[in-house]
Design brief:
Helix content is about 5%, strand content about 35%. It has two helices and 35 strands. The strands form seven sheets. A twelve-stranded mixed β-sheet has the order 2-1-3-5-8-11-15-19-22-25-28-30, with helices on both faces. It has a ten-stranded parallel β-sheet with strand order 4-6-9-12-16-20-23-26-29-31, with helices on one face.
Length: about 350
């Protein structure tokens, strides 16, 4: 309880100030600093060193021009029903990671613009968790003749909802798990030596769904696409995937086992319409036992022994509600009630 109390005291100033005031709290080895306003994230980054942690309150922030340190960056989340007390955390400008950003961990942020690495640099062990990305997402560089690889990136329980380009050309040994993709452009491009599991894909692009994929394990996923050529690549392994409304007649030299073809889309999810992402949709399956993955649990984001977390609530203590008096009482005291729930993960 002592640790939780300390965290609440760090968060408390953000509730005592204006609802429109953004706060970035920098945790360093020698203390804590608060920065406020649209540039609070930029200022916290400037004052940080590799190994530090930055907490972003609800609100909209500009990103630093480049992130070139190893940081932990945690927001309040992006689901409206899980951020009623705090507001969702939004980063409105593009994010670029440079070669000193190895081991960066980012959670609970809605990125409105592009998220990418700098051109032809190596950013290793990046973790992106419970975030939403509306712009392009790229491991950027010369995909035909890479000069640097981004090793071991992890994308976990994220939402890609911008209809833009996802390019993984300079990544290797990537893990994408329990994520939701609503894309109108080529969904996955230049995927190499990756494991993509328990994801949901909606793609309205008419050419390719998975383009230039090599040596990738694609399992326990749910795919709805209008692509004329769903899979373009070699030495890939497709297992226990559900294909909604279409049949893959030919995997063109790739290995495929135990996939579910031409499954009826209209009754598959509890609530999902069209091809766009909506927080009101319900991606639970109507039938959780018919379509199982390699591990025996259901396909999609609610499979595995650690399913998609409802509301994508970040792993730090979560502010569930707040009640702040509009003025002080007769004794000059301001009454504040805040309910905070510890998170298991």
């Amino acid at each position: 309880m002592k640790k939780l109390f300390i965290i609440v005291m760090v968060l408390l100033p953000s509730f005592l100030m204006s609802q429109n005031l953004n706060i970035a709290t920098l945790h360093k080895s020698n203390g804590v600093q608060n920065f406020t306003g649209m540039l609070a994230f930029v200022q916290a980054y400037s004052a940080s060193a590799s190994g530090d942690t930055i907490y972003l309150s609800g609100g909209s922030f500009s990103a630093p021009d480049t992130i070139n340190k190893s940081l932990t960056i945690i927001g309040a989340g992006h689901y409206p029903d899980s951020t009623i007390a705090t507001g969702k955390t939004i980063v409105s400008t593009a994010v670029v990671l440079n070669d000193l950003a190895d081991n960066t961990y980012i959670e609970g942020i809605h990125f409105l613009s592009n998220f990418q690495t700098a051109y032809d640099v190596s950013v290793n062990n990046l973790t992106l968790r419970r975030c939403r990305i509306d712009g392009h997402f790229k491991f950027n560089g010369n995909y035909y003749s890479p000069v640097a690889f981004c090793l071991n990136p992890s994308i976990i329980e994220c939402v890609f909802a911008g209809g833009n380009e996802l390019v993984f050309g300079n990544s290797r040994s990537m893990i994408i798990s329990k994520s939701i993709f609503h894309m109108s452009w080529r969904t996955l491009v230049w995927v190499h030596t990756a494991t993509i599991s328990n994801c949901i894909f909606f793609s309205t692009n008419g050419t390719y769904f998975l383009d230039n994929a090599q040596n990738t394990l694609f399992k326990n996923n749910i795919v709805k696409t209008s692509a004329g050529y769903p899979f373009n690549g070699t030495n890939n392994y497709f297992a226990n995937n559900v294909f909604l409304g279409f049949t893959v007649d030919n995997f063109y030299g790739n290995t495929a086992v135990n996939n579910y073809h031409n499954v009826t889309y209209e009754s598959f999810f509890v609530n999902q319409n069209g091809n766009d992402f909506n927080y009101n949709f319900n991606y639970h399956l109507n039938n959780t036992t018919t379509y199982t993955g390699e591990d025996g649990t259901q396909v999609g984001i609610y499979g595995t022994n650690a399913p998609y977390k409802e509301g994508a609530v970040p792993g730090n203590p979560h502010v569930r509600s707040k009640n702040i008096a509009v003025s002080t009482n007769a004794n000059g005291q301001l009454e504040v009630q805040i309910k905070v729930a510890a998170q298991q993960e």
